[in-house]
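check these tokens.
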Amino acid sequence: MFGKNGTCARLLGIAAVVAFAAPVSAVTVPFTEDFSVNASGWLNATSAPLTWNATGGPDGGSYVSSTLGSLSGNGTIQFRANDSANASGDAFVGNWITSGVSVISAEVFHDAPQAITFFFRFAGAGAMVGFPASGPVAPNTWTTISVVISPGTLTPAGGSFATTMAAISNLQIGVSVPVELESVPFTYGVDKVTIVPEPATAGMLAGGLTLMAIGGRRRAARR
């Protein structure tokens, strides 16, 4: 059915489709880290491994925890997914802007004696930006925190949105505590760290997969 030139043209066309469909960064989206078998390479702020817990998570299953004492003011990073540690298989590493990531969320827990605040922070390309999570998190209960990834939700932390989010190498989750709880090593837990694409990107991906499936069925029907 295909001559030499036809075969080459077909292969070139396939290559073009693959190139168009391939991600421009290493970010995996959508993605959820649920720490099902271990800490997935996540560390705390001192680069110490997190504690993996087989049970007790928000769904009764596994999660990771940290007991690093926290400082008041700017807060302390309790959980880090570093490119250098291949955390989560580098699913969070790369260009979040072109990958269309719109929301990051996580399930968090702590046993401090009063409500505290969690936040997300990102580092990359020699810069850093932060995003405050939802309001104060009550103790001893799993709580969903989330933030929309946009310049409007950004808290300045030494870098610009465009520069940092285009080259993420370190995803961080931290806590801010009042001065009276400073340096006390409470237990902090995290599970189900999730990133999702913005709706337009998700729709395009779904539409592309549908068209590929339809095309495959049509080719099969002609054989």
